[in-house]
Write a sequence for this structure.
């Protein structure tokens, strides 16, 4: 075994993969498009799903239960993004979640 191989096995760091599924939950279409564009630039092979409310996000979760990344607005028209974060966290432990709150659009 080389020292580099042994070192790699001892210190595993969780990083975002360049491909997989991401969910954007944002009720403002312009903000959602902006975030989608940024993610596509950084991770061109990432498949993006978007939802403008909790109901749509839950429907997506029912058919695609494993997401690499979720970007969730806290202030949604039909409830709090915190509810969705709790539900997603219970379904999968490896999920990376970014929370934001668009105070300008409120």
């Amino acid at each position: 075994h080389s020292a580099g191989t042994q070192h790699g096995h001892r210190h595993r760091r969780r990083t975002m993969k360049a491909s997989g599924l991401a969910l954007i939950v944002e009720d403002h279409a312009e903000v959602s498009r902006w975030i989608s564009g940024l993610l596509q630039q950084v991770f061109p092979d990432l498949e993006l799903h978007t939802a403008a409310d909790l109901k749509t996000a839950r429907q997506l979760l029912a058919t695609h239960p494993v997401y690499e990344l979720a970007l969730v607005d806290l202030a949604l028209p039909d409830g709090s993004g915190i509810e969705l974060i709790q539900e997603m966290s219970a379904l999968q432990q490896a999920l990376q979640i970014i929370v934001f709150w668009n105070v300008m659009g409120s």
